[in-house]
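re the bet — no i am not wrong, look at it urself. input seq straight from the record:
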Amino acid sequence: MDEHPVIAFVRSKVPDPGRPFTIIADLTAHPGSGGQVAAAIADSGAVGLTRAEPGCLAYDVCQDADFPDRFVAYERWRDLAALSSHLKTAHFAAVGAALAGLLAGAPAVRVLMPMAASAKQGSSGSDPETRK
């Protein structure tokens, strides 16, 4: 089976697939469709279901207050395997199907890596999310 394109993209960005990372996805609805996108996301229940996944450290989808056709998804994952599991869920497929035709294009995705804490801050440099 081929690797999901999101996994391939994230894998190319993370130096250690076993460590936590963050994804920021910018979504833009077709002009005037922001209300439909917000309803589709809310009605799918995907936000709550995703937050309940064991490898999800944080997940939120926000609508821009000034530009209601713009949305930002903030996702923090324990590791690449957790994201891979998420992409195989029924709720991920359902929200994707619900958004079909409502978005102006593919989401713009950024991958962010946590910065190591400075020794001056008195930290060991480890990520607190991995100490749980």
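see?? The longest helix spans residues 34-44. told u. also The radius of gyration is 16 Å. so pay up
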